[in-house]
Amino acid sequence: MIYQISGNLISKHKDFVVLKVGEFGIKVSCTVNTINSIKTDDKIQLYTYLHVREDALDLYGFYSIFEREIFLFLIGISGIGPKLGATILSGILPNEFKEKVISGDVGALTEISGVGAKTAKRIIIELKDKFIKIGDDNIGFKDDISPKLYDDALNALLSLGYSSQQSKKALTQIFKAESNQGNNIESIIKAALKNING
What we know:
This protein has 198 residues and is α+β, with helices and mostly antiparallel strands. It has helices at 32-37, 65-75, 82-90, 94-103, 106-110, 117-133, 147-159, 164-176, 185-197, and strands spanning 4-12, 16-21, 24-30, 43-52, 57-62. The chain starts with a strand and ends with a helix.
């Protein structure tokens, strides 16, 4: 599977972007949240999922690992394909979606485009326990902290050779602290290294 893709933005559309990767222009289907997070002057990095069909290969991209994880959970539910999964995540932020599922809020889920009462109940039944179990790994981000900042810090620690468990534990403690490290990636990584190495 293509885990992630990086490239310069060629064009941005309602439900997909086109990235220049080498000599190719790659179409990547995205949620509204991901498209809104993309700045035209940045080099874009998206976490991806490749959906293989008999007549097509569809690449989906997400601004954070957490959004992709939720997408993968959704398409694992019978009756929910990639297009509907992306539509659902276009109607609500990932952390809000997680909270609504854990609280069993059928009404809030049915307000999302494409989600009826039966689908909402199925989502809650299928995902509630999963979200509770991963609660410690995917923290609730404060309003001034981007989930992408967490993902970038996590990737940096993994590239330095630290385990996923070590890295997530250290970052969770930092991001949950009353006095967080702000939006500076360098200070977050330094604090995480200090946490891991004592």
